[in-house]
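Field reference: sequence -> structure
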Amino acid sequence: MFPGSRPFMLSDLSLLIQISAFFLLIYAVYRRRKSIASHGKIASVAFYLVLPAIFYMVYNRAQGLTLPYYNWILSFHMLLGIMTIITGIIFVTNQWKWKIKKYMDLEILLWTGTFLLGITVYILLFYPVLLESVSLLRFV
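Structure field:
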């Protein structure tokens, strides 16, 4: 994704989709103060925008994607992602009776954690030299 480093791949597109959806979600949080209806619509668009990227990640994991020395990060990213998807489905389909601010705040935290871990996984897969100096990540 960086100039001159390697060709553009589906993983790069997935990352761009995730970044776009995350900023849309942040915008939806901002819109909540002005219009709760537009807040819900924008957050739903962010959720639906992310679905193709999620399917791509599930496909890669089914093909045996691993991160030597860092599988705990991948596993934690998957766990947070699953929780984010489940709560997102519940919010988008309006099936949760407790659709209140504290649970939506929890969803934002889950989404943010999943997003940041996803960027970490992306860097570990394609640009590991950027994280070589971070000794916290390596438990060997």
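Note: The helical segments are 10-31, 36-62, 71-92, 101-126.
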